[in-house]
Write a structure and sequence with these properties.
Number of strands: 8
Radius of gyration: 13 Å
Strand content: 35-45%
CATH class: Mainly Beta
Number of domains: 1
Strand order of the largest sheet: 1-2-7-5-6-4-3-8
CATH architecture: Beta Barrel
Shape: globular
Order of helices and strands: EEHEEEEEE
Length: 123
C-alpha cells in the first residue's frame, strides 16, 4: 500500500492506494491538483490518468477511493450517491477501487463545493 494525503480546503485526509495497475498510474502522476465536484456524498475530479477497468465495482464501501474511467476521474466515497438505494454506496457507473481513506471521512459530510483538491504522496 502506498500512503497518500488528500487536501480539501482545511481538511487533510490520510489514505492509501492499493497495488492495482490503475493505482500505480495514479501514484506516478502525483501530486495532482484539481477542482472537485460533488455527486451526493462523493467528491470527484478529473485526473491525468487514462485506464480501463480492471475489477469493476458497482457498489463500494464507505471511504473507498475509486477511478471512474468514463470521466478519467478520481472519486472519494463518503456516503450515499443519487444512484444509491438503501444504504448501498453506488457510483454513477462501475469503477475500480484503487484505495481507501484511512482517516475519518465523516469530516466531508456537508461539503457542497469542495474547490481545489490536492493529492500528494504521504510519508
Amino acid at each position: 500500500m502506498k500512503k497518500i494525503v488528500i487536501r480539501i480546503g482545511e481538511i487533510a485526509l490520510e489514505g492509501e492506494l492499493n497495488d492495482s495497475r490503475t493505482a500505480r498510474l495514479v501514484w506516478e502522476s502525483l501530486p495532482i491538483e484539481a477542482n472537485g465536484q460533488t455527486w451526493g456524498d462523493e467528491i470527484y475530479f478529473r485526473i491525468p490518468v487514462s485506464a480501463d477497468l480492471e475489477d469493476p465495482k458497482a457498489v463500494v464501501d464507505l471511504g473507498d477511493l475509486g477511478y471512474w474511467p468514463d470521466g478519467h476521474a478520481f472519486c472519494i466515497f463518503y456516503g450515499r450517491t443519487p444512484a444509491s438505494s438503501g444504504d448501498d454506496i453506488v457510483p454513477a457507473s462501475p469503477i475500480d477501487v484503487i484505495g481507501r481513506v484511512t482517516s475519518d471521512v465523516a469530516v466531508l459530510k456537508g461539503i457542497s463545493s469542495p474547490g481545489l483538491v490536492i493529492i500528494e504522496k504521504g510519508m
